[in-house]
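In the current project phase, work has continued on tokenised descriptions of protein folds. One protein thus recorded appears below exactly as we store it.

——
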Amino acid sequence: MTKQEALFNYTLRLADTNLILGQRLSEWTGVGPFLEEDLALTNIALDIIGTATALYEYAAKIEGKGRTADDLAYLRTDREFYNPKLVEQPNGDYAKTIVRQVIMDSFDFYFYTALTKSKDETLAGIAQKAIKETTYHLRHTSSWIERFGDGTEESHQRAQNAINELWQFTGELFEVDEADTLFVKEGIAVDVTAFKATWEKHINDIITKSTLTVPQNVFMQTGSRKGIHTEYLAYILLEMQALPRMYPGAKW
């Protein structure tokens, strides 16, 4: 693998993560628990998809094979996506959506903070915009998980069930490969292992403050970096890619 291919794959993985998470959140549009929250989560989804768009555009430029951002988003199969399994998990009830989101928001806060210092000016620029949005996202979802955990007996149990179910997917967020190691040394990529302990303390503090608990000794899922996913990703792509595949090159 050349350095160009490795940078393409790195950028593509970040784009995939944002696109699939944004797509999941957009499923709540129009059916949120009340109007203000419906609009808030929809705006969060738009922010995340906006980051995905910028990353796909940069990935297409790096690849240099004539593919566009839309081609990368709509014309690849599930085995060609490299997002972590966490973001493709079904929304479930609102507590599960919020638990998934607060895990990702807390990770993204540290990730994009570090990426703003990248020697790759394009990645650093994307990160500078993303971190402003992520800071708001994290504040919003942190307040929601506290409301669930410290609310009624039912809301507490739903939030705890979500944590128990989703925690097995958090390990993938901190996996690294040879490309990561190479680009970390060159000051381009983020060394996720460097902030893992900080992230663990932060997310533990959020969960504990919400009178909830983090599962212990959980077997962690893996495989997404090789295009191995849960069944849910294929269904997301089936819906998301239907029109571009039915009408290739169509313009509206």
